[in-house]
Amino acid sequence: MSVGMGFYGLILGAICLCPWLCLASGEGHVESNLKGSSNEMACNMYEGEWMLDSSYPLYDSSACPHIRKEFDCLGFGRPARQYLKYRWQPSQCNLPRFDGKTFLTTLKGKQIMFVGDSVSLNQWQSLLCLIHSSVPEQPLISEQPMDQTVYMTNHTYPSYGVSVIVFHTTYLVDIVQEKIGRVLKLDSLQNGRIWKEMDIVVFNTWLWWWDYVQVGNKILKDMDRMEAFRLGLTTWANWVNTEVDTQKTQVLFQGISPMHYHGIEWNEPEATNCANETQPIMGPTYPSGLPRALFVLEDVLKTITKPVHLLNITHLSQLRKDAHPSSYNGFRGMDCTHWCVAGLPDTWNMLLSAVVTS
Ligand SMILES: *[C@@H]1O[C@H](CO)[C@@H](O)[C@H](O)[C@H]1NC(C)=O
Ligand SMILES: *[C@@H]1O[C@H](CO)[C@@H](O)[C@H](O)[C@H]1NC(C)=O
Ligand SMILES: *[C@@H]1O[C@H](CO)[C@@H](O)[C@H](O)[C@H]1NC(C)=O
After folding, report:
1. 62 noted as active-site residue
2. How far is the centre of ligand 1, averaged over its atoms, from the C-alpha of 338 (Å)?
3. Percent helix, percent strand, percent coil in the chain, to nearest 5
4. Ligand with an atom nearest the CA of residue 254
5. What subcellular locations does the record give (predicted)?
């Protein structure tokens, strides 16, 4: 099997799901005081605005040897480079600039793993490029397929003994091939034994696609996706509660990564994708508010009794309608789901670094 196949399947899946994803954005607000979500930081780094900064981008993506064609926007001819020039400015403090040496030195001997769908892959790629720009040593690389859609790729920096790993699994919970089609087991999570050995794990899942969903012994065709998402996340949350030693393993969850296929969300009702977007939304407000899936995620995170940090990137990413590959990627489809590297995921990693190295 090729590592790329799962990714393409995912892109198609995400595009098919667009009609219901458009329903996913709603108004409303949930008061939240999740354990660990901002109290280890001096300020809420997730609140702020995008500012032009001529010293950006943080690295030249053409010099990054690990960049996949799905995210290599400059390599595939994106003409306007303005999207590389924005720095996230939290309203109450400054976000430290990413420094690969400090990152690897602070995490010496540790393993950090991104577990989730292709958006996890996106963030992992950005982290590899960020590290490469200040620590150009060649990592040891191993790839390990588990089955058709699940695989693990491990980059280890020998001088620091740090492993930066991606564990690609679309749903966190299990998916198995059965006679009737792919069945998603919302109440089962087999791969956790590998995850809980890590020092730091960043989970993420949202771009769902499947044929059948199984809960207990019942197979349901086409249950409410938001309800399925809640059930799947709850299985994961129970696993954290019962299985993960958070003294040893620091657990983070990446907030919902937004898509830009519905211009009505950002007051451009004519736009049906991100193709013409060259500017972020300046200022602190995304017109349509937060997506419903984030409220589901926050609800489930509240049921976890152990410290779990929400890497709350949803809102700051919503403002970046300009930061997707659109058609500038290796498969020439319109992609307003993933993000260019260099680009927005570098900011996610600066936030991650601020959390795990503090
Ligand atoms: C990643 O690779 C390093 C170096 O080979 C190894 O020590 C570590 O166990 C690997 N991690 C996983 C999760 O396979
Ligand atoms: C993008 O802009 C071009 C030229 O201004 C226009 O023809 C096209 O319809 C726009 N596309 C979208 C999706 O808005
Ligand atoms: C995440 O960010 C959103 C938007 O800024 C905010 O409304 C929400 O309360 C935050 N969630 C947590 C758990 O801090």
Report:
1. no
2. 27
3. 30, 20, 50
4. 3
5. Membrane
d(CA 90, CA 77): 31
Q: What is the pTM of this model?
A: 0.85
Q: What sign does the dihedral 345-346-350-353 (CA atoms) show?
A: positive
Angle between helices 3-16 and 118-134 (to 10 degrees): 130
Rounded to an integer, what distance in angstroms lies between the CA atom of residue 17 and that of residue 35?
Answer: 32
- Name 9's bridge partners: none
Q: From the CA of 163, how far away is ligand 1's center (Å)?
A: 7
Q: How remote is the C-alpha of 341 from its chain's centroid? A: 13
Task: Ligand 2 pocket test: pick from 262, 267, 276 the residue with the most ligand atoms within 8 Å of its Cβ.
Answer: 276
Region of 145 (left: φ > 0; alpha: ψ -120 to 50; beta: rest) is beta
DSSP-derived secondary structure for 314-356: HHHHHT-TT-S-BT-STT-S-BSSS--SSSHHHHHHHHHHHHH
Per-residue pLDDT of the chain (358 residues; tens, 9 = 90+): 233 333 333 333 333 232 233 222 222 222 233 434 444 456 899 999 999 999 999 999 999 988 899 999 999 999 989 999 999 999 999 999 999 999 999 999 999 999 998 899 999 999 999 999 999 899 999 998 877 677 899 999 999 999 999 998 876 666 666 665 665 665 566 788 889 999 999 999 876 545 455 556 666 666 677 787 888 888 889 889 999 999 999 999 999 999 999 999 999 999 999 999 999 999 999 999 999 889 999 999 999 999 999 999 999 999 999 999 999 999 878 999 999 999 999 999 999 999 999 8
